[in-house]
Design goal:
The chain is α/β, with parallel strands linked by helices and 770 residues long. It has a 6-stranded mixed β-sheet with strand order 11-16-15-14-12-13, sandwiched between helices. A 5-stranded parallel β-sheet has the order 4-3-2-1-10. Strands 18-26-25-20-21 form a 5-stranded mixed β-sheet. The protein binds 1-deoxynojirimycin. 1-deoxynojirimycin (NOJ) binds next to loops.
């Protein structure tokens, strides 16, 4: 994704490759026969391919309609030098390119079109961190089913999702793209996404191939600096960072993307331990691996490979099948070097064949040889599809997390007749959507101001004032798509706008403040050193809060922010994240009680930047918090987070009781059933996420104080009580031990807690005996 206009210009030249000659192949070649097994078709096709054609299948190029002309790509397609294109989102252009590949190239091998379909394609859903906040795996699956439907109609048959990087440092901008800090929740969401994208069969209508990324450890970047090296112990890797990836493999994910960064000094894209030992040998992954953009070439930049040829040899040998290259023709490591490497015997033909086989298998698996083209009419029906928009609204309602609701200010009383909506994000179509919203129609996104106006009864005055403006001090790489933001206000405008907003608040009965971050403040290349609210937003909040009006704070953002000041002064706080195209409507639904908040934090919320990294599943120290004097603590601020992992309020309340285990003592390998009663103790209907945490008290290695090992959603009418059953099987009780350097399931006493967040107090225990 890192491209400059200059680079693209020289690319153009490089891509206007040589003339081509199209050779006829027998029309009825075996590999076109869909009744044959895929391996036979691949055998046949490969027996006809030249070495150059094979290398071409490993080559993936970006195509940016904004800066490139299709003619730049055509010669390479005719010559069979390109196996895949990414970033083409117009079905007519896709069909144009595909026609050349399947009609004019010698072997007529269709192209695989890929794109970052991360949280929607034409319809933008909440960002992944928000979707994870729903803790609703069916919802996540349904959302990705729609995203797959929209993208595949357009001819995109491969998405670079799900992003499965565990992230425990909100300074890292890409925390917005994943499911948060927890391996158990992350694994459940990972599998749901794979099912949503691929269905039972990625070749079936409306489905596409998923690509789990970024394999692996990218979220552990030192200091939260994007692309920075990660140092992760084997125990952490197996117990924390890898489980979501393994869950995706178990769910049948078709491809994987190697990460950019160094993992324990070996770049992930040249890392045979990850790509071969773990992925293929331990997990039996049968799909293909693509590098992240230019990650093969960058093995040189990392100070790992000697030159691009060395980089190509080492990436291929480690297990990277396809190279995603920026379209320079200069930096392309595979296409420029593999033939030479084979001649010099630094890479074998067998290695090349293995990679090509995997790529071709994927093309057959998604049915490209039978259905290479986009359905342009169907693709058109995917714009503003009302059913999809409806789902986007539901998803946004279910992804929001209610953090605070003093005096039950929410849901709002319909009595308020003048409402001030204040803040730089309150009327921003761009920001309601979030990172990776690249193929939608931004105009159709609904802002908070619009959502509120559509919600309130007639006669209610809704007025808007931004109050302050915000900006990144360093431009985002995504400005390539949307252009730069308008310049910041000047010295006169700034104070004027601030005062206007405070005045509006003063003259209104209710204030809804919408604060947070621009969409490009999270995502790729969007690390930041603090989690403070950018610009003068906190000052504005203070000035407005001082008026003593009923005030609701709605947060639009892609990472937890420092709201410590607000949590003692602002009565109601709703974390909406970047909720997607229907965000404004969903927020209004929640504020006025047409929907009830059901979200729970998929991440521990720090009080301030100084607590980072902070996550709940940490080990005990010799000075546990329960010990008088508790010397582990910071002396200046509490050690506890602002909000614990799993936290989220409802408009009703829930009580937990009667926690029991099926056996006080179980044998190694036996399962233990945990049951608990959950009751709606409030006066409104609601939905709770009952969460099960365990702690293994002793073993060959120390275990975290708490680990999530089960959860279930419960819908309850007022006063209703239901029994929730969760199972702790061998898998949940097994971990990778640094002491034995392997997986262990050990006899020990286990603590069990069940409740509405990771601070749950209802406790029991059981033993695992030999
Ligand atoms: C780079 C990003 O790291 C990756 O997540 C994305 O899929 C590729 N660019 C393609 O856009």
């Amino acid at each position: 994704m890192i491209l400059t206009r200059r680079l693209l210009a020289c690319v153009a030249a490089a891509l206007l490759l040589t003339n081509t000659v199209a050779f006829a192949i027998p029309e009825r070649a075996t590999y076109f026969d869909p009744s044959l097994p895929i391996d036979k078709r691949v055998d046949d096709l490969m027996s006809r391919m030249t070495e150059d054609e094979k290398i071409g299948q490993l080559n993936q190029l970006f195509y940016f309609a904004q800066f490139m002309k299709p003619e730049m790509i055509d010669p390479g397609l005719r010559e069979g030098k390109i196996g895949s294109l990414l970033f083409v989102t117009d079905p007519a252009t896709i069909n144009r390119f595909q026609k050349i590949a399947v009609e004019q190239s010698r072997l007529k091998i269709p192209l695989l079109f890929g794109f970052d379909v991360i949280h929607g394609f034409r319809t933008i859903f909440p960002v992944p961190l928000a979707l994870a906040s729903s803790w609703d795996v069916d919802l996540v699956e349904r959302v990705q089913t729609i995203a797959a439907r929209e993208a595949s109609a357009t001819g995109i048959r491969w998405t670079f999702a799900p992003m499965l990087d565990i992230a425990r440092d909100p300074r890292w901008g890409r925390i917005v793209e994943g499911a948060g800090e927890d391996p158990f929740l992350g694994a459940r969401i990972a599998a749901a996404q794979v099912r949503g994208f691929q269905g039972q069969d990625p070749a079936s209508p409306g489905r596409l191939l998923a690509c789990m990324k970024h394999f692996a450890g990218y979220g552990a970047a030192a200091g939260g600096r994007d692309y920075d090296a990660a140092y992760i112990s084997d125990a952490e890797l197996y117990n924390v960072y890898l489980p979501p990836f393994q869950a995706a493999v178990d769910a049948g994910v078709g491809s994987a993307m190697s990460a950019y960064m160094d993992l324990n000094d070996v770049p992930a894209t040249g890392n045979a331990f990850l790509l071969h030992d773990v992925l293929r040998k331990q997990w039996g992954f049968k799909g293909f691996v693509v590098s992240d953009a230019d990650a093969v070439g960058n093995l040189v930049t990392h100070g790992f490979a000697e030159d691009k040829a060395d980089a190509a040899a080492r990436a291929l040998t480690a297990g990277v099948d396809m190279e995603m290259s920026i379209p320079s023709g200069i930096s392309n490591a595979y296409s420029n070097n593999l033939a030479k490497l084979i001649k010099e015997k630094r890479v074998t033909t067998a290695q090349l064949d293995e990679a090509v086989r995997r790529v071709l298998e994927a093309k057959f698996k998604v049915g490209l040889f039978e259905n290479p083209y986009a359905d342009e009419a169907r693709a058109a029906s995917m714009h503003n599809n009302p059913e999809h928009r409806k789902m986007a609204r539901i998803a946004a309602q279910r992804s929001a997390v209610l953090l605070r609701n003093e005096g039950n200010l929410l849901p709002l009383d319909p009595k308020f007749s003048s409402i001030a909506v204040i803040g730089p994000l309150a009327d921003s179509k761009r920001d309601i959507r979030g990172s990776w919203s690249l193929a939608d129609d931004m105009k159709t996104a609904v802002t908070v101001v619009e959502g509120i106006r559509a919600k309130v009864r007639s006669g209610v005055k809704v007025e808007y004032a931004p109050g302050v403006d915000i900006a990144r001090s360093y431009p985002s790489l995504f400005e390539l798509f949307f252009g730069p933001r308008p310049k910041l206000w000047n010295e006169t405008q700034g104070p004027e706008e601030f005062d206007k907003a405070v005045k509006l608040a003063r003259s209104s009965e209710l204030v809804v403040m919408v604060l947070g971050q621009h969409e490009e403040m999270s995502g790729e290349g969007a690390s930041q050193s603090t989690i403070e609210l950018p610009g003068r937003q906190r000052e504005l909040l203070e000035a407005v809060s001082a008026l003593g009006k009923p005030t609701v704070l709605v947060l639009i953002n892609g990472r937890p922010l420092d709201i410590s000041w607000a949590v003692t002064r602002v009565p109601a706080i709703l974390e909406a994240w970047h909720p997607g195209a229907e965000g404004g409507n969903a927020i209004a639904d929640l504020l006025w009680g047409d929907a009830t908040p059901v979200g729970k934090l998929p991440i521990t919320w720090p009080r301030s930047s100084g607590q980072i990294p902070i996550y709940y599943a940490r080990n005990l120290t010799q000075e546990p918090e329960s010990k008088p004097g508790f010397k582990s603590r910071y002396w200046d601020i509490p050690t506890s987070p602002l909000y614990p992992f799993g936290y989220g309020l409802s408009y009703t309340s829930f009580g937990y009781s009667n926690l029991r285990v099926s056996k006080g003592t179980a044998k190694l390998g036996e399962s233990v059933e945990v049951t608990v009663d959950v009751e709606n103790t409030g006066r409104r209907a609601g939905e709770e996420v009952a969460q099960l945490y365990i702690h293994q008290r002793s073993g060959s290695a120390s275990r975290p104080t708490r680990e999530l090992k089960g959860f279930e959603r419960v819908v309850l009418a007022p006063g209703e009580k239901k029994t929730v059953r969760l199972t702790l099987g061998k898998r949940e009780l097994t971990y990778w031990s640094s002491a034995t350097r392997g997986w262990v399931h050990e006899p020990a006493t286990f603590d069990v807690w069940v409740g509405g967040d990771s601070n749950a107090t209802l406790h029991t225990e059981f033993q695992i005996a030999r």
